[in-house]
Amino acid sequence: MRFEVTTLGTGAALPARGRFPTAQLLNMQERLFLVDCGEGTQERLRMAQVNMGRIERIFISHLHGDHYLGLMGLISSMHLQGRLKELHVHGPAGLREVIEVQLRVSQTYLRFPLHIHAVPHLSGALVHGDDQLRVTALALRHRIECTGFLFREAGHPRRLLKERVALIPHYARKAVKAGEDLLLPDGTVVPNAELTAAPPPARSYAYCSDTAFAPELVPLLQGVDLLYHEATFTQALAGRAKETMHSTAGQAATIAKQAGVGQLLLGHFSSRYKEVGPLVAEAVAIFPNSMAAQEGCTFPVGSPELHA
Ligand SMILES: [Zn+2]
Predict the structure, then answer these.
(1) What's the 142 CA to ligand 1 centre distance in angstroms?
(2) One domain for residues 130 and 261
(3) Of 66, 131, 210, 225, which is the active-site residue?
């Protein structure tokens, strides 16, 4: 059962040094979601061999251009490709106007239903929920309203023990997976513990971009498997980070450490850094399990071997 993040763009503000502006693709059990959609996202999706028609929902953190200027192009291409399936876009309140004015002036009448949802800038608010997934908001600190997203898998059912499967009639399997004991036709009760093993843990992914150092996020990020946190600068430019309401790699690592996350993924690198080595080194010194997002690379959320 796949749950992974492909970082399609890892740069900040200006596309430079082979880095594209921010966009990420989430694959959760073969359902595809896009998180932010900087310029060039379509091209990045093509390079990652992703069929854009499969994207169900798009989550936009804020309306700085490097996080959403690829959105209209993507919507327009979906239309040209003949998409009929509905598309949901979640983003700041102003996003609706941005999309609608462009559709209006170009006299584009989309073939597919486009649902635009305003995301509340309120930590813990529900952004989207279904039987597999729960997405909640993370109120970030930025120059304009910016909201991160916490993606949590719904709990998995218990796993049937291979050697006992034959004993369980088909009609009873769902109940047994849900934890019930098995009542056999002859009246015998087989305790659930003899039939199933504990389910794999539910995984979680947190997306925090863009933000100044925001320690109030720590309780909300407690124990997430993978935390993506922007790291625009190194500590040497802490003043610049504060001024522009971004974070340093050290600050990102401090959040990761305090929240006890599984892994930290750094991104949104300023174009001034030719190499990301110094940013990673700074984070690793505080939180060893830190790594840099790379263009077009895929990172698993949690331990794939537990969810095989
Ligand atoms: Zn920004």
Answers:
(1) 7
(2) yes
(3) 66
Q: Are 296 and 48 in contact (CB under 8 A)?
A: yes
> Within this chain, do residues 152 and 185 fall inside the same structural domain, yes or no?
no
- Rounded distance from Cα 22 to ligand 1 centre (Å): 10
Specify whether 178 is located in the same domain as 243: no
Range of the structural domain that residue 103 is part of: 3-156+200-307
Same domain assignment for residues 173 and 30: no
- Cα of 205 vs centre of ligand 1, distance in Å, is 20
Short-list 242, 262, 250, 259, CA closest to 302: 262
242: CA distance to ligand 1 center in Å? 13
Per-residue pLDDT of the chain (308 residues; tens, 9 = 90+): 899 999 999 998 777 778 999 999 999 999 999 999 999 999 999 999 999 999 999 999 999 999 999 999 999 999 999 999 999 999 999 999 999 999 999 999 999 999 999 999 999 999 999 999 999 999 999 999 999 999 999 988 899 999 989 889 999 999 999 999 999 888 999 999 999 999 888 999 999 999 999 999 999 999 999 999 999 999 999 999 999 999 999 999 999 999 999 999 999 999 999 999 999 999 999 999 999 999 999 999 998 777 77
Active site includes 66? yes
